[in-house]
Amino acid sequence: MHEAPDQVPPAAIKGRIMQILFVHQSFPGQYVHLAPALAARGHDVVALTTAAAPASIAPGVKIVRYAIRRGNTPGMHRWAAEFETKILRAEAAARVAHALKAQGFMPDVICAHPGWGEAMFLKDVWPRAGLLSYCEFYYKAEGSDVDFDPEFSAPSVETNARLRAKNACNLLSLEAADWCVSPTEWQRSLFPHWVQPRISVVHDGIDTEVARPDPEARFLLEDAGIELTSGDEVVTFVSRNLEPYRGYHVFMRALPELLRERPSARVLIVGGDKVSYGAPPSGEKSWKEIFLAEVAADLDLSRVHFLGTLPYPRLLNLLQVSAAHVYLSYPFVLSWSLLEAMSIGCLVVGSRTAPVEEVVRHGENGLLVDFFDPPTLARTIASVLANPEAYVPLRKKARSHVIERYDLRSTCLPRHIALVESLRTSVARRSAAFSSAIPA
């Protein structure tokens, strides 16, 4: 059900066991499992968003949309412009929140991703609601993504000031939050020390029954008329967009040596040609085009297949035939695709970076290489393709590790549900007694 901004029907606020509000500009986002699970438990769940998400994405969740009424102020200082953008989102969300409140919707708990600012004023609308803030990333000038890759970054006063200003919304959100949740220990560690004791580490969760091995799997390369199976030398690389943050440039630079060493190997690359993280390239070419052009003369392009973005079932099918799955990343947020690949039993060749190292343990459930070493990456992948039986124990351990630590239904979802339901009387639980009641 979708409603225009400021027009919230009485049906959207009918109370049941608990009233829970989710706030995410592109809902469901990280709440794709949690929101419908809480609705299935009988709670009255509403999502506040700008997204035109169909109700089928989150069954039982009522979608209420907000709209921003104007753009940024002309001439705004460049370091302040992003904060103003978030204030505009916060204003729009608060306007709809007041309309919800006027009709009787009084959430016990608000689950919000603070990254776009829209939850900034919601505790002023509902002071007694428990606010659970999703701590995905805290920006730092040193020791994470910004200063990691010297090919694309250099320390500057401009960068440092921009990042400090960028954290303003994060800090306001942390001050307002009753409790927080972060998907990995490393992501939690980026946040100020004073808030870390109030951040539970709970991953969003991987459905290991869906992302599972299938030795009979086949993947059809329709354009080439080729059917690949789990016995073929299939090298996979997956990223939302093909860009430096996820090591696309390093991977492409490893391919000439890899394809010379393994003449039967095929490389299947999944990802768009836009930018999810970091700066766009200068000029009209995409990062995908730039780094392909850099090595194209040394590649057998008939064995390198760019698949664009894939529907989720087809992505899982691709991973099921993967002989070696490459996951490279700056020190940044962890991709679901890494854990999905491990759940399927892929042999992961990952970068020795945080938070990849938190999940992939070298020689135990995968292999790690230096991010900036394409020759070693090529040789490592080649060794996996040359002797696949030697890595079967690592594949099995990868899946068992995900089942043990990151399984959606047995581990992550129950912990998230317990966390949300424990926040019902949040104001009183700001004391030390509340801290002891939070799931570890």
Topology (SSEs and partners):
Elements: E1 19-23, H1 34-40, E2 44-49, E3 62-65, H2 81-102, E4 109-112, H3 122-125, E5 130-134, H4 157-166, H5 168-176, E6 179-182, H6 185-189, E7 199-201, E8 218-221, E9 226-229, E10 234-241, H7 248-261, E11 266-272, H8 287-295, E12 304-308, H9 312-320, E13 324-327, H10 336-344, E14 348-351, H11 356-359, E15 367-369, H12 374-386, H13 392-406, H14 408-422, H15 432-437
Parallel strand pairs: 1-2, 1-4, 2-3, 4-5, 5-6, 6-7, 10-11, 10-13, 11-12, 13-14, 14-15
Antiparallel strand pairs: 8-9
Helix pairs in contact: 7-8, 7-12, 10-13, 13-14
Give the overall average pLDDT: 92
**CATH architecture descriptor text of the largest domain:** 3-Layer(aba) Sandwich
Provide the gyration radius in Å: 23 Å
| Largest β-sheet summary | 7 strands, parallel
In whole angstroms, the N-to-C terminal distance is: 35 Å
> In order across it, which strands form the biggest sheet?
3-2-1-4-5-6-7
Note the run of SSEs as H and E: EHEEHEHEHHEHEEEEHEHEHEHEHEHHHH
Q: Could you state the CATH homologous superfamily of the largest domain? A: Glycogen Phosphorylase B
Count of discrete domains: 2
Task: Look at the helices and sheets and give the structural class.
Answer: alpha/beta
Q: How much of the sequence is in beta strands?
A: 15-25%
Say what the CATH topology of the largest domain is. Answer: Rossmann fold
How many helices? 15
Helix content, binned percent: 25-40%
Work out the number of β strands: 15
